[in-house]
Design a protein that fits this description.
692 residues, OB fold (Dihydrolipoamide Acetyltransferase, E2P), alpha/beta, Rossmann fold
């Protein structure tokens, strides 16, 4: 039987039509696909021990006869146990299996078997627990380093080992799966070819270290990790070149008069980080090619001010700007800030689904009379057009998908684009989710910001927390009380504004409190926020609607109820509403039952650090990229082997190499097959997200 990389899996022995359909549903149709289903761990079954030498706990490969097997019914419904003895010439060892009653009928007392498993000490004696069991004559799963696979449907690890051996025995892998990575790159890092790496990982032989295999740190693993990162970074570099290869039709004037105007606009000095980022934006905006830049910074670092200055340059150059935010409350907050900064010189308007006179606003925007439009998703509706768009700004980019970004860009002809996020994104994640964007980071807070102390307490401490809060309110403090739900729920065990929130308002009577959540009307939101900012409202009882956008320096206390219901980055975002003035601030997170160790770890990290980038790195380790940003929404790729946390060094190397290869591609005929495949994928991605 001769197999190729393109052979359908249904042609393999052991895979019929039904199983092939199950595999196809999981994304496995061809031999090529199955070869990339890699073992998740390895067991060293090379050394055969005798029963008499087993004198301590550990993992052993043993050979012998199985005697006195019997079923034992357990009290727990549906559970059973098989007990017996493994016997060889040196002694005997008790063996226990759980939920494998069929062994009693399948095992022959005359046959020799190979068993691999963990020996444990129980009641002063040793016993072999749940070992694998196979006839010694077959020895497919013993006598070697054995790869262990995650099951694919009903195909378990044993069945997958048989399939992999069948494939490797009947395929010419070097010719079927040639390595398209430049050979000089592989040589420079002492990495094997793709075919060699796959054979090594499915059929490890020789003196290879099992520990290194399980740590994913063999050259074979590193070849696949580097390859995944390299192809992605090359695709992102190609995608960026597609978006910036055509010159923009507008021009920004950013000379000395503009610098003087920027200086007059602000009553305070920019931080060194803000000045550095503004210089990067200036270089992009005065370039003949469109700016594509991601600006990230911790809560309160001053990103909006930098965006406002860039917008002023655009408007002063005779172009229009748009500023899109994910929620109405945030759009309204940005509108007030930008109107205060730019409203005396330019016509600034708010366009959301709740805006009155939307038809008039759209007409004036299309005519160029509105110079800066601030809004929500309403800005990307088909009915909205912008006559001469020069700069588009997107805030809280992680709340939008790549498609929305493209729709906003399409409102103009190759406008400059600045996307911002107050959720610090680990560099490794930024280079994958937003790798087609240049990256700017504001990594310092403005002077005069107060420190925030954070406490995490159990629900039993709630009465003491609110007694403490009342004393602070008596001294003139203002506070946020944040709840995960608006209404109590029978399905979700979490605090709600309409339940515990109302009880707390009673406890704090005498201090004016107001409620703010997603069902509040626009008028009520504006009134409550205004009165809270003015100090008339002392306690704001709210949902996560306050996560972004509110800037009330006098608010120095935040109490977060049911803190276990929030992600680590979201907790940090909420905490960022305080500590915005000169007074010391305190955040208290009250949690209910901690269902998992990761929940406890999340709250522990939250309490120990106010560094948004450290928090983001920890959140990435706990939740992974898909959960952190929303894999499908953000465009974060799913890697087969690479890990954004463990393999970040390889990501940086691959990014550098991809850019250098792309720059030299015109002189390299040998790179044409690789670049053709990568460009096709990049074009497909570009057209898909652009709606083409």
């Amino acid at each position: 039987m001769n197999l190729t990389a393109e052979t359908p899996l249904v042609e393999l022995r052991g895979i019929g039509p039904v199983r092939s359909r199950e595999l196809a549903a999981a994304g496995y149709r061809l031999v090529r696909d199955l070869l990339f289903h890699l073992p998740f761990r390895y067991e060293d079954r090379r050394s055969l021990a005798t029963v008499g030498r087993v004198d301590d706990e550990g993992e052993y490969l043993l050979s012998g006869r199985l005697e006195k097997l019997s079923r034992v019914r357990l009290r727990r419904r549906g559970m059973s146990m098989v007990r017996g003895r493994l016997v060889d010439d040196t002694g005997e060892l008790p063996v226990v299996w759980f939920n494998r009653p069929y062994l009693v009928d399948q095992v022959s007392a005359e046959e020799t078997y190979l068993l691999y498993g963990r020996v444990r000490r129980r009641a002063e004696r040793l016993e072999l627990l749940n070992p694998t069991c196979e006839p010694a004559a077959e020895a497919l799963h013993s006598g070697r380093i054995v790869p262990v696979y995650n099951a694919l449907g009903k195909l378990g690890s044993k069945a997958l080992r048989r399939l992999m051996d069948q494939i490797l025995d009947h395929i010419q892998l070097e010719s079927e799966m040639p390595d398209r990575l430049p050979s000089e790159l592989l040589e420079s890092y002492s990495l094997p070819s793709l075919a060699t790496a796959l054979v090594t990982l499915h059929r490890p032989q020789g003196e290879i270290s099992v520990e290194r295999l399980n740590e994913r740190r063999t050259p074979a693993h590193e070849r696949l990790i580097y390859g995944e990162f390299f192809r992605l970074q090359l695709e992102l570099a190609v995608l960026r070149s597609l978006e910036t290869r055509e010159r923009k039709t507008h021009r920004h004037d950013w000379g000395e008069p503009t610098e003087r105007l920027l200086g007059e606009l602000l009553p305070f000095s920019l931080t060194a980080a803000q000045q550095r980022v503004l210089a990067e934006i200036r270089e992009d905006m005065t370039s003949p090619y469109p700016m594509l830049r991601l600006l990230q910074g911790d809560v309160g670092s001053g990103k909006t001010i930098v965006a406002a200055l860039a917008l002023m340059v655009t408007l002063d150059s005779g172009h229009q700007g748009v500023f899109m935010a994910p929620t109405e409350i945030l759009a309204e907050q940005h509108y007030r800030t930008l109107e205060r900064l730019l409203g005396r010189r330019f016509n600034v308007a708010l366009l959301t689904s709740s805006s009155p006179e939307q038809s008039r606003l759209r007409r004036e925007l299309a005519a160029g009379e509105i110079q800066l439009a601030v809004g929500t998703h309403s800005l990307i509706q088909e009915s909205v057009s912008v006559r001469r768009l020069g700069l588009a700004v997107i805030d809280e980019q992680h709340r939008f998908g790549v498609a929305q970004r493209r729709l906003l860009q399409d409102k103009g002809v190759r406008p400059d684009l600045l996307v911002m996020t107050a959720t610090p994104i680990p560099r490794s994640l930024a280079l994958t989710a937003y790798g087609d964007l240049a990256l700017s980071v504001i990594d310092e807070l403005p002077p005069g910001r107060s420190p925030i102390s954070t406490r995490v307490v159990a629900g039993s401490s709630r009465p003491a927390v609110y007694r403490w809060l009342r004393r602070r309110l008596d001294l003139g403090a203002q506070a946020y009380l944040v709840f995960p739900l608006i209404d109590d729920s029978e399905r979700i065990d979490a605090a709600a504004v309409s339940g515990l929130g109302e009880e707390v308002r009673e406890l704090l009577s005498g201090h004016r409190s107001e409620i703010l959540h997603g069902r509040s009307s626009r008028e009520d939101r504006a009134r409550v926020m205004s009165e809270f900012a003015a100090g008339e409202v002392k306690v704001l009882v709210a949902t996560t609607l306050v996560e972004v956008g509110l800037d009330v320096p006098r608010a120095t206390i935040m109490v977060i109820e049911s803190a276990e219901r929030f992600g680590l980055s979201q907790l940090h975002q909420l905490r960022g509403r305080i500590g915005r003035g000169s007074e010391p601030s305190t955040c208290v997170a009250i949690h209910g039952k901690l269902a998992t160790d990761s929940t406890a770890r999340r709250l522990e990290i939250f309490a120990s650090s106010t560094d948004g980038f450290r928090v983001a790195e920890a959140d990435l380790e706990i939740r992974g990229p898909g959960d952190l940003l929303g894999t499908r929404q953000s465009g974060v790729p799913l890697f087969r082997v690479a890990d954004l946390v463990a393999d970040r060094e390889w990501l940086e190397i691959a990014r550098k190499d991809a850019r250098e290869i792309l720059r030299s591609s015109d002189q390299r005929d040998d790179l044409r097959p690789l670049l053709a495949a990568v460009e096709k994928r990049a074009v497909d991605r570009h057209q898909r997200f652009a709606g083409g």
